[in-house]
From TrEMBL:
<dbReference type="Pfam" id="PF00005">
    <property type="entry name" value="ABC_tran"/>
</dbReference>
<dbReference type="Pfam" id="PF08352">
    <property type="entry name" value="oligo_HPY"/>
</dbReference>
<keyword id="KW-0813">Transport</keyword>
<keyword id="KW-0067">ATP-binding</keyword>
<comment type="similarity">
    <text>Belongs to the ABC transporter superfamily.</text>
</comment>
<dbReference type="InterPro" id="IPR017871">
    <property type="entry name" value="ABC_transporter-like_CS"/>
</dbReference>
<dbReference type="InterPro" id="IPR013563">
    <property type="entry name" value="Oligopep_ABC_C"/>
</dbReference>
<dbReference type="GO" id="GO:0016887">
    <property type="term" value="F:ATP hydrolysis activity"/>
</dbReference>
<dbReference type="GO" id="GO:0015833">
    <property type="term" value="P:peptide transport"/>
</dbReference>
<keyword id="KW-0547">Nucleotide-binding</keyword>
<dbReference type="InterPro" id="IPR050319">
    <property type="entry name" value="ABC_transp_ATP-bind"/>
</dbReference>
<dbReference type="InterPro" id="IPR027417">
    <property type="entry name" value="P-loop_NTPase"/>
</dbReference>
<protein>
    <submittedName>
        <fullName>Dipeptide ABC transporter ATP-binding protein</fullName>
    </submittedName>
</protein>
<dbReference type="GO" id="GO:0005524">
    <property type="term" value="F:ATP binding"/>
</dbReference>
<dbReference type="InterPro" id="IPR003593">
    <property type="entry name" value="AAA+_ATPase"/>
</dbReference>
<dbReference type="GO" id="GO:0055085">
    <property type="term" value="P:transmembrane transport"/>
</dbReference>
<feature type="domain" description="ABC transporter">
    <location>
        <begin position="5"/>
        <end position="254"/>
    </location>
</feature>
Length: 322
């Protein structure tokens, strides 16, 4: 089928500030992540805070330069593009942030916040741009008359609609949504998720949907990837991941989540130990310090993603494959 985005062995390392007499070290925030997203698909990316999911999203959009690996958009290597070429593609690749308030300039009226991306890309006259602003406000479920107001006049849910309008106004193909509903009340969350799904249908959007919340991801995703300490540990179609999680980490996350199927009577798996310091990830399988099934080989050999069945279900764990 039609692949829009391909991520191959993506890496993002951050230098760690140390004392001058200590050797330099790095945090491997993203350490060899590969996946692809089809046109019109939603790929959910989940994991605990600090697992590298947000960094993955930012590196894909080239808001951060990758340390290694490749990002291909419509078959083109984003990594090799000139600044001008990348600017041309910016329109097609947009982001929605977690905290709509922090991402909206409080001194700017909504119409200026929303027409700014059009202006930056040299699209239309001011009058044409303001007309587009009114249209996009209607599309995200706010009236065009809101254009003259300031961000503080809106509720959290309304502000996220404005954040979505801003990412949508350039008519992108791919939207990276980074915890777009995490700051909102549960009742508002489902409204925003429904809006995102409606917009996806209406405009043929493709989403990379990042969240720490498995129930949110379940609602909106076609496939789900699970990250742990900078690595993708499981990747599967939603039905398959939630019905038969293969990685012990995914199993633990699901057993703790309220979305777990109550009929399944899945026993809650309590993980021992904290998430290790990402500057010093455990050797072998990075999850071995917390895994209830860890074996000797897990401490030494890093597992790679392998298919567990014929339906695009992949897992990086020595319990599977071979
Ligand atoms: Fe657990 Fe070993 Fe699988 Fe890692 S590779 S998840 S330590 S069983
Ligand atoms: Mg994050």
């Amino acid at each position: 089928s039609d692949v829009l985005l391909q991520v191959r062995e993506l890496k993002k390392y951050f230098p760690v500030q140390k004392k001058w007499f200590q050797p330099a070290s790095v945090v491997k925030a993203v350490d060899g992540v590969s996946f692809s997203i089809r046109r019109g698909e939603t790929l959910g990316l989940v994991g605990e805070s600090g697992c590298g999911k947000s960094t993955t999203g930012r590196v894909i959009l080239h808001l951060l330069p990758p340390t290694g690996g490749e990002v291909l958009y419509k078959g083109k290597h984003l990594t090799n593009l000139s600044a001008a070429e990348l600017r041309g593609l910016r329109k097609e690749l947009q982001i929605v942030f977690q905290d709509p308030y922090a991402s909206l300039d409080p001194r700017m009226k909504i119409r200026d916040i929303l027409q700014e991306p059009l202006e930056i890309h040299g699209i239309g006259s001011r009058q044409e741009r303001l007309k587009k602003v009114e249209e996009i406000l209607e599309i995200v479920g706010l009236g065009g008359h809101y254009a003259n107001r300031y961000p503080h006049e809106f509720s959290g849910g309304q502000r996220q609609r404005i954040g979505i309008a801003r990412s949508l106004i350039l008519r992108p193909s791919l939207i990276v949504a980074d915890e777009p509903v995490s700051a909102l009340d549960v009742s508002i969350q489902s409204q925003i998720l429904n809006l995102l799904q409606d917009l996806q249908e209406q405009f043929g959007l493709t989403y990379l949907f990042i969240s720490h919340d498995l129930s949110v991801v379940k609602h909106i995703s076609d496939r789900v990837g699970v990250m742990y300490l900078g690595r993708l540990v499981e990747l599967a179609p939603k039905e398959s991941l939630y019905a038969s999680p293969a990685h012990p980490y995914t199993q633990a996350l699901l057993s703790a989540a309220p979305v777990a199927n109550p009929d399944a009577k899945r026993q809650r798996i309590i993980l021992t130990g904290d998430v290790p310091n990402p500057a010093h990830p455990p050797a072998g399988c990075a999850f071995h310090t917390r895994c209830p099934h860890a074996m000797e080989t897990c401490k030494v050999v890093r597992p790679t993603l392998k298919a567990v069945d014929g339906h695009e279900h992949f897992v990086a764990c020595h319990l599977h494959g071979e």
